[in-house]
Amino acid sequence: MSGILDNCQWPRCCESCELGERRNVVASIVAGILFFTGWWICFDAAAIFPDNSVFNHAYHTCGVISTVAFFMINSVSNGQIRGDTYTSGCLGQTGARVWLFIGFLLAFGSLIAASWILFGFYVVPHEPNDWPGIAIFLQNAFIFFGGLVFKFGRTEDLWG
Predict the structure, then answer these.
(1) CA distance to 8, 42, 44, per residue, from 18 (Å)
(2) Is the entire prediction scored with pTM above 0.70?
(3) Which end of the chain is more exposed for a tag (fewer CB within 10 A), N or C?
(4) DSSP tag of 157
């Protein structure tokens, strides 16, 4: 049985979008903009609702954990995960894989916690101001997608 998507093709406009050597630069800029936008949204909600009654400032913990996960995910290269470049150290390739796995666990966990904050404390009780919950969720979503763009949008072929 032939694949259903065998005859599907990308639009013609995408053929001229070859980034080549600028791929790492574009991925880094896009990831930085996503990371910045996430924190900017959270700062906006904290500035609009400075008191703890509407916006509990303990909810910033999700963004901090998401930021730590961003750095953990991007601190190991794909070569270290494959075992091409990292052969020594206290744990070697296994340690790099465990580090990446824990980073992804923290990233997914903070995104799930942000959605729990949004729905558990703002949407379901029907608070009059939903913006703090939306801001916390958007912050973590932007940081999460920024981390994915920075990890998988770059190529290591251009480094050496």
Answers:
(1) 20, 34, 36
(2) yes
(3) N
(4) G
